[in-house]
Structure formats: C-alpha cells, structure tokens
Amino acid sequence: MKFLHLTDTHYLKSDHEAAQQMLKQLAKQVAFECLDFVVHTGDLTNDGDEADYQALKDLMEATFPKDLPIYYCLGNHDLKRDYNKVFEGNDTSDLHYFTVNHRGYRIIILDTSIEGLHDGEVKGDQAEWLFQELSEPSEKGTLIFQHHPYGIGWAEGEAECKVETGFFDRLKQSDVLAIFTGHLHMQRNSLVEGIPQYSANSTRFGITLYKEQLWISDRTGYSLVSVSDGLIDYYPEILVPNQTPIDKYLG
Question: Which of 8, 90, 131, 160 is 20 to 30 A removed from 192 (C-alpha atoms)?
C-alpha cells in the first residue's frame, strides 16, 4: 500500500497562485497512478471561510485523479462548519473523524482541533470511539492520521495534543502501526509508547528551530509512504528549495 501525506496548506483565495504552483510542482514529482490514497493532515486553510474551502476543493480535484481517494483531517486553523458545508455537504460544526479500509489496513482519521485554540486534544466521545474501533484488530494493522502530534511540540517538553489519563496505555495495546501528523511545519520522527509517529513538512512554509529560536523558512514538502508486511517506509520529499536531477548536477 502506498499513499501521499500532505499537510498545512494554509490556503486562502487571496494567495491562490502560490497554492496552484505548489500543486503543479507536486504533480510533476509524484506518480499519482501508484497511490492508493492521499491524506491531508490539517490546516487546509488559514482561518479561511466557505469560499476558501470551495476554492481549495476545486483546486485539489483539478490536481488529483477523480478515482484517487483524498481524506482530510482538521487542524487548529480550520473552521469545522465551513469545512463541513463544502467537503461533507452538511451544515454542522461536529468533529470530523471516521475510519476506512485499504488493502487490509484500517485507516483512522481523527479530529484533534478545538476551534479558537492552538493546541489539540483527543478526549471524550472521540477517544471512546477510537478505542471501540481498536477493540478488534484489523487484518494488517491500523494507521492513525491527525493534525496535532502526541508528546512533542516546537519547544522541548511541549505537548501539542492533550489526552486523558490512560490513553497511551490503551493505545499501545492496540494494533496501531504508526501515527501521521502535521502542525509543526517540519519533518519530525518520534515514538509514542513505541509506536512510530511521523510529522510532515508543510506545503505552504517551513518552521525551523535555530539556536532555540523558531524561524520561518521557504522549505516546503510532502511525504510518500509505503506500507508492506508491517514495514513502513516514510520518504520525505522537498518542493522548495528546487532540486536538480543528479545526472545534470554531475555533468
């Protein structure tokens, strides 16, 4: 199974050209026909309205093949009601979480976002739903996708996603193979009670920790992920800075 991990597009209609160019570059680099699905792990827009979500949806549909499933998580810069109106066809501000299956793997999409707050959480009804889903193992294992990562942040010891007592004990007893997140705008790999957690580069702008200070950078990217027989190959790719084929570089 192979999929594309995107995150943090922070789209606004006023900056449409930059997003369009990013997706054009992505289309040049990725063989869409080899993918089983695409996941966007949140911050689709930058506090955008319904019109921004509609423009982003149109742009995504124009970029990717119509038969390629695209799943969306919501981030702290997303507005649930506007997202739901455009992408789900309902006028609610409900949490957006669900499960699907691909090639024997269970794919769980969680909603860690709390409107108006920077940090996220998986608590209450959503947490109970998650562990109900995980109570029966899937054929090949489970992959979880969400915006905020567990246990890490930009500062050492900072946790961007809050959970209830006992959450991680229950998680490590499940068949979860890996967790995929966004939010940090940097490629980060960590372990959550022994479970690999992968945080992807943003497609909009990068954040770099330099001498204990956060810097905005023009680094953007995405990740291609292959999963086979329990082996997860997480391959980060760069959109900016531009790259040169090695044969041209070596002359």
Answer: 8
Q: Is the pTM of this model over 0.85?
A: yes
Taking only the tens place, the pLDDT of each residue in 5-30 is 999 999 999 999 999 999 999 999 99
Tokens encoding 177:
């193979």
pLDDT in tens, 123-158: 999 999 999 999 999 999 999 999 999 999 987 778
Q: Spell out the domain ranges in the chain.
A: 2-250
Query: How far is 137 from 218, CA to CA, in rounded Å?
Result: 41
Q: Give every CB contact of residue 181 below 8 A, 6+ residues apart in sequence.
A: 7, 41, 145, 146, 147, 148, 149, 150, 197, 198, 199, 200
**Beta strand ranges found along 126-193 (DSSP E):** 142-145, 161-163, 176-181, 188-192
CATH homologous superfamily, domain 2-250:
Metallo-dependent phosphatases (3.60.21.10)
